[in-house]
């Protein structure tokens, strides 16, 4: 069982409200994360501040701010297909009782639209599930960098095994 370490939610809120777009920085190579997969239209990476083991984010490469309004139906469905593949890969790698998929963010911070794919492990008491399981104000998991790299690689390999014909070659 991984321990949680404190997370400064105030500093995080200040950074996302006043700082540069963390996703655009990641794509520019100035905000390193453990990338699971990327192609010409999207990127998939592990959450740097996970409240759950295997917590992953999926985002379009292009800075878009509306979960549906900034996409054509075809673009949206392509992203949802990728999210499905990521979710199924996570379920094969991480013990999962329930998989949470949602888009979060705000016009006040974290404007670049992205989807959260977070696996709830089996046996979590009901009162600690759902939004409580995603609450980083109670701390985030202290996962060593080497383990994060292995987890990203394992999820990527599971994605490739699931449907190689649907997966374009990864640039990583």
UniProtKB/TrEMBL annotation:
Residue numbers covered by motif Histidine triad motif: 112-116
InterPro entries per UniProt: Histidine_triad_HIT, HIT-like, HIT-like_sf
All copies of domain HIT, residue ranges: 22-127
Protein name stated in the entry: HIT domain-containing protein
Organism: Ktedonobacter robiniae
């Amino acid at each position: 069982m991984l321990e949680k370490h404190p997370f400064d939610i105030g500093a995080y809120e200040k950074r996302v409200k006043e700082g540069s777009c963390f996703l655009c920085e990641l794509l520019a190579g100035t905000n390193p994360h453990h990338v699971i997969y990327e192609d010409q239209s999207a990127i998939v990476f592990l959450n740097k501040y996970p409240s759950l083991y295997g917590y992953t984010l999926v985002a379009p490469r292009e800075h878009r701010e509306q979960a549906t309004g900034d996409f054509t139906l075809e673009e949206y469905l392509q992203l949802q297909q990728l999210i499905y593949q990521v979710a199924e890969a996570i379920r094969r790698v991480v013990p999962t009782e329930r998989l949470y998929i949602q888009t979060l963010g705000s016009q006040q911070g974290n404007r670049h639209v992205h989807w959260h794919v977070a696996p709830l492990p089996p046996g979590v008491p009901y009162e600690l599930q759902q939004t409580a399981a995603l609450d980083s104000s109670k701390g985030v998991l202290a996962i060593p960098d080497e383990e994060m790299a292995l987890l990203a690689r394992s999820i990527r390999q599971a994605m490739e095994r699931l449907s190689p014909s649907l997966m374009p070659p990864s640039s990583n």
